[in-house]
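Study both lines:
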Amino acid sequence: MIRFVSAYMHDAGASATAQGLTTAQAQLLIQLDEPLPMRVIADRLFCDASNVTGLVDRLETRGLVVRAPDPGDRRVKLVSLTPAGLALCERIRSDQHGLFAALAVLDEDGAAALKGLLGRMTPAIEDARAGGRQESRRGLGSEPVSSPGCSNLGA
């Protein structure tokens, strides 16, 4: 599974680079399904809010995002995609050829099984992260999963 995630991250990074973005900039854009506070973006990207400010500054300069005050709390800035930012997100996603190739090897039953497995696994990851727990580090077999040098997979 770690090998798949690594390949996916490489594919996503190549797609971002092809669009003239850093991986961090692309990750920020893809988070914006809806306007989000800068603090939420920082949490999702596992970085300090000051890093998000720099990323948003550069994306705003390119016309890909806008900042606006939160109507509920004017001290909070909401970041949202511009039409150009939305179009770029769609190009990034469509340019992930490796992901499409990986999904293409699955038949309908395999795709349904993968969707079911990921649907069950994702909440477990989110719950463990939210609770600060580190459950058993076992992979698909009985051997513990090792992850040397993986201090920041999202960067």
